[in-house]
Amino acid sequence: MDIFGIPHQAFLGQIMLGLVNGAFYAVLSLGLAIIFGLLRIVNFAHGAFFMVGAFVAFLIGRHFGVGYWWAMFLVPLAVGIIGILFERLALRRIYNLDPLYGLLLTFGMVLVLEGGFRVAMGSSGHPFATPAELRGAWNLGFMMLPVYRGFVILVAVVVCAGTWIVIEKTRMGAYLRAATERPELTQAFGINVPLLLTLTYGAGVGLAGFAGVLAAPIQHVNPSMGSDLVIIVFAIVVIGGLGSVVGSAITGLGLGVVEGLTKVYYSEASTTVVFLVMALVLLLRPAGLFGREGTA
Q: What one-character DSSP code corresponds to residue 137?
């Protein structure tokens, strides 16, 4: 049976492959949405922190024998600490300035991180072994899905759902929202607003580092792996609604599928379809699909 002119096996298989890419988009855009939504910083360095996460996982495995499962826990902490230092030493000084300064500063951070890793590690990619427990493939009937890629999809869904619960359903999330919307009033209640903002930035880039660990066994670890994704991730955050956690997660997964299907029907447009969708959404709904009017 054909679906829109192609065999249904190929159609369903492309959806699954699109979900794998969408999983990376979702986790990356989630951290970016948190940083913009709560700090109003356009964090252009997000892709670089994704790359740092992959490299940290690679290096601690090579030099210290740290396995993949420990890396999933340790790398987000390490990348988050780097982000916290960056926020304390640099970003904090420009919070009251035009957002353009934040964009330029984080872009400078991209050049520093990518240049440093290119000098230290070279420009070529480094292979990262898939953990033994996640090797092999599942027979879905219409395709053989590598176990690790299925694992990535499941983890992305869990991480996105968990992050939404923390921000929307917990007291800590309420403090974070209050600290960004009414910082003086929140400070008056004895809550350390600067510390909350610092931890928010650290958590956002920690998610980027976590995505880097997930990507390492699929992509070759290299200094430009983040810059290849960050523009697409920015587009996804705009489409979902700037600052919307739900919008970023759903849009990331959905556009991964759209991009995958575009490769089947019109491969020449697969690299631009995300931006075409962004242009259409901005024309019809400037705040984004899940954004609130007046927040875009």
A: E
List residues bridging with 6 in a β-sheet: 3
- CA dist., res. 115 & res. 224, Å (int): 10
Q: Per residue in 227-264, pLDDT tens?
A: 878 889 999 999 998 778 888 889 999 999 898 888 87
Amino acid at 270: S
In a domain? residue 44: yes
102 falls within a domain: yes
Whether residue 38 contacts residue 200, with contact meaning beta carbons closer than 8 Å, is answered with yes
Q: How far is CA 45 from CA 89, 113, 196, 230, in A?
A: 15, 9, 20, 8
Helical spans, DSSP H, in the chain: 8-39, 46-64, 68-89, 99-121, 147-169, 171-181, 183-188, 193-215, 227-240, 245-265, 273-284
For residue 198, tell me if it sits in a domain: yes
pLDDT of residue 108: 93
Residues 6+ apart with CB under 8 A from 158: none
Return the sign of the alpha-carbon dihedral for residues 72, 75, 77, 80.
negative
Based on the structure, what is the number of domains in the chain? 1
pLDDT at 296: 45
Q: How confident is the model at residue 4, as a pLDDT?
A: 56
Whole-angstrom distance, CA of residue 176 vs CA of residue 200: 8
- Residues (pLDDT < 50) of the chain are 295-296
| C-beta of residue 259 within 8 angstroms of C-beta of residue 270 | yes
Q: Distance between CA 293 and CA 287 in Å, rounded? A: 5
Residues spanned by the domain of 35: 22-220
pLDDT at 175: 83
- The tokens for 152 are 């990535």
Q: Is 258 part of a structural domain of the chain?
A: no
Q: What is the pTM of this model?
A: 0.91
